Amino acid sequence: MSQTEVARMKSPLVPLATLIGREIRGEKVQEPYLKYGQAALAKKGEDYFLIKPDCQRIHANPSTSFSVFAIFDGHNGNSAAIYAKETLLDNVLSAIPQGSSRDEWLQALPRALVAGFVKTDIEFQQKGETSGTTVTFVVIDGWTVTVASVGDSRCILDTQGGVVSLLTVDHRLEENEEERERVTASGGEVGRLNVFGGSEVGPLRCWPGGLCLSRSIGDTDVGEFIVPVPHVKQVKLSNAGGRLIIASDGIWDALSSDMAAKSCRGLPAELAAKLVVKEALRSRGLKDDTTCVVVDIIPSDRPVLPPTPRKKQSMLTSLIFGKKSQNGSKTNKLSAVGVVEELFEEGSAMLAERLGKDIPLDANSGIFRCAVCQVDQPQSEGLSVNSGPFFSPSSKPWEGPFLCTTCRKKKDAMEGKRMSTPTVAL
């Protein structure tokens, strides 16, 4: 390491008052750069990952760059994981209006992630295959991190303050009471595996199919109450940076979030990913595919993340996130060293709540764009705002955006309004 790099590593942190003053005065804060690493051990060959650090909102315009990191943990085969890896990003981007400014793009991203996940699921199920996959999908644009997830893979954030924060929600039926209630209300059954003698063993599962998860992409043979609608969280880091650890459940079944973060602090991202996998293997053995991606979001004036203090957490830990925004609206708190500003969080499985109430295109033309598949169709071919009760006099009017016939049927099946007929693999 050169003397210049050593000197830069030893340079003091910018005082908090200075950072806040810069933001108040609107001074330009330099964009961070990323360093990342990946490690994996295969047991079944159903884990896949995506690393795309050079995406652009506007083609051939480097100033519009953003990065994508994702993990796909397949089950009952690998076809759903492969398909999601190849198509999900394009489906998400197609749901964001062209020509958006950066702020508009970031604001539209949570809804586009919902549309992209659902579209990918519809397309894959039309292939007639029965595998499924969890997805943890991370978009990094400057200091803003947006995470969308279904299933039990996980993304954690380790900040300069030494506090580890979970950016995803586990959709395991065993651990998520709200999801159990949603599945049963939509027509599924939740219970453990019955064995000879009437004893129940193992984790809670959804029947038919016996899946332990309440959300995934694929799983045609289980039932459409297993939904692809992701939990989405969007945060803004301070310009002290931070570390993301994205991993499949092979890691989290062996390590807690704190254990994973502490096991690799102070190491470069590539070595950190390998060490997390090694620690999980040492703790539990190789019982499942084990994949980890580590991403360091580093201030541009530093070669590496500053070392994280190993102090005990104090009452200031509660400041790691600003007050949760209401209805997905933005908060106005300023970022500070080691503090994260929460911009958006929503986990509802209801499309009416996730896609908003916008009516796309010109309502006078009679042509509307489906909010999920982005296909233009006449209003008569779908379901749109204020279309009135659809199922019965007791049904509420649809208050979401326009959906084409195919996407409308998908919505109805997910909400238990139209019972799906799963294809059971023999």
From TrEMBL:
Cofactors: Mn(2+); Mg(2+)
SMART domains documented for this protein: PP2C_SIG, PP2Cc
Keywords: Hydrolase, Magnesium, Manganese, Metal-binding, Protein phosphatase
MF terms (GO), sorted A to Z: metal ion binding; protein serine/threonine phosphatase activity
CDD domains: PP2Cc
A Pfam family hit: PP2C
EC number annotated for this UniProt entry: 3.1.3.16
EC top class named in words: hydrolase
Matches recorded under PROSITE patterns: PPM_2
Domain of life: Eukaryota
Taxonomic lineage: Eukaryota, Viridiplantae, Streptophyta, Embryophyta, Tracheophyta
Catalytic activity of the protein: O-phospho-L-threonyl-[protein] + H2O = L-threonyl-[protein] + phosphate; O-phospho-L-seryl-[protein] + H2O = L-seryl-[protein] + phosphate
Species annotation: Rosa chinensis
Name of protein: protein-serine/threonine phosphatase
Family indicated by similarity: Belongs to the PP2C family.
All residue ranges annotated as the PPM-type phosphatase domain in the record: 32-297
PANTHER family: PROTEIN PHOSPHATASE
InterPro entries for the chain: PP2C, PPM-type-like_dom_sf, PPM-type_phosphatase-like_dom
